[in-house]
Design brief:
197 residues, Glutaredoxin
């Protein structure tokens, strides 16, 4: 066997081994992020307990809002409603939970969040608006688990917060973020959800 044939066989073997290796690679590793979500405990607009543990085994999309917001939260919540409808249109409503964390828990009680959710005709079966933690807890949670800012603006009822939609795996790992305010990539989000099913 000449040296050319040996090199050819070697390349074929290496290629096959790399393909086998890729097949064994978990799908989560193909996403751009891998951040473990910290444990949390909260209550939704229906006064139901929601925690990291209760979401285990479920794909979820999260964002941060507050009901007194006079800028980005309005279009972001409307876009989340569009995402909820798109998820339903694709038959994925039983596979995905939408989670909107309030970053103003002192004002945003369960009752306030229920009224807010009704404005957007949110389907409560897979969309929870969360409160029931302290201001310090939600700020730290957003900073550490989602790598996004969350802070009260001094002398104002407004808050600084991230405007992304976040994709979290069934194991509670943040995998990817998407534009949430202006032209969210709904089709891309659906494709990514389907990868994780």
């Amino acid at each position: 066997m000449n040296i050319f044939n040996r090199r050819f066989i070697f390349i074929v073997i290496v290629t096959l081994l790399s393909l086998v290796g890729c097949q064994n690679e978990p799908i989560e590793s193909t996403f751009p992020m891998s951040v473990e979500i910290q444990d949390f405990k909260a209550y939704n607009q229906l006064e139901e307990s929601v925690s990291l543990e209760s979401l285990h085994g479920t794909i979820w999309i999260a964002n941060f809002i507050f009901t007194n917001c006079d800028t980005v939260c309005l279009p972001m919540t409307a876009n989340m409603k569009t995402l909820q409808d798109t998820i339903k249109d694709n038959g994925l409503e039983n596979d995905v939970q939408l989670i909107s964390f309030s970053i103003d828990p002192e004002h945003d009680t369960e009752t306030v969040l229920q009224q807010y959710s009704e404005i957007y005709h949110a389907d409560h079966s897979n969309w929870s608006f969360l409160t029931g933690y302290t201001q310090e807890e939600i700020e730290s949670f957003a900073n550490v688990s989602f790598k996004t800012p969350a802070a009260k603006v001094e002398g104002s009822n407004q808050f600084i917060h991230g405007t992304s939609f976040y994709l979290i795996s069934k194991d509670g790992i943040l995998l990817k973020d998407y534009e949430g305010v202006s032209d969210p990539p709904f089709e891309e989000i659906i494709k990514d959800i389907k990868k994780l099913k």
